[in-house]
């Protein structure tokens, strides 16, 4: 479903269009959007030409789930750090959890900074390649 949405010029298809394009049953199409919505990969919208619901992707299709992950990773890092302190950072499990905590915090910070920079530069026009703001 995601590939079908990515490869349409409009970036959106109704359930009926997805069934025809993917050669699958309507039941198959009914489950996929919910899963992709929870990952912020697609969004539902009303089809402007009918009452049907469309599923759409846009230029921020990768940005939204990355940023959602960036918001969740610090909680995991904090939990790892707390358990590491309880176990003691000199114990093998405690040391492993402490390193995991530090790694997640560092990588998440880098990822968030990089994603925000990309978004500032390219989000207004996904075809932009100059790397500068207009």
TrEMBL record:
Residues annotated as domain HTH marR-type: 6-51
Source organism, top-level taxon: Bacteria
A Pfam family it matches: MarR_2
Entry-linked InterPro entries: HTH_MarR-typ, WH-like_DNA-bd_sf, WH_DNA-bd_sf
Designated name of the protein: HTH marR-type domain-containing protein
Organism: Kitasatospora arboriphila
Upper classification of the organism: Bacteria, Bacillati, Actinomycetota, Actinomycetes, Kitasatosporales
């Amino acid at each position: 479903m995601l590939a079908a949405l990515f490869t349409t010029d409009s970036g959106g298809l109704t359930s009926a269009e997805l069934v025809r394009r993917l050669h699958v049953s309507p039941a198959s199409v009914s489950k996929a959007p919910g899963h992709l919505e929870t990952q912020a990969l697609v969004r539902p919208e009303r089809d402007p030409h009918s009452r049907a619901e469309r599923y759409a992707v846009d230029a921020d299709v990768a940005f939204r789930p990355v940023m959602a992950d960036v918001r969740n990773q610090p909680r995991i890092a904090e939990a790892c750090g707390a358990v590491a302190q309880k176990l003691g950072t000199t114990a093998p499990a405690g040391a492993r959890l402490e390193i995991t905590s530090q790694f997640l915090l560092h990588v998440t910070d880098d990822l968030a900074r990089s994603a925000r920079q990309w978004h500032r530069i390219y989000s207004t026009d996904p075809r932009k390649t100059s790397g500068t703001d207009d």
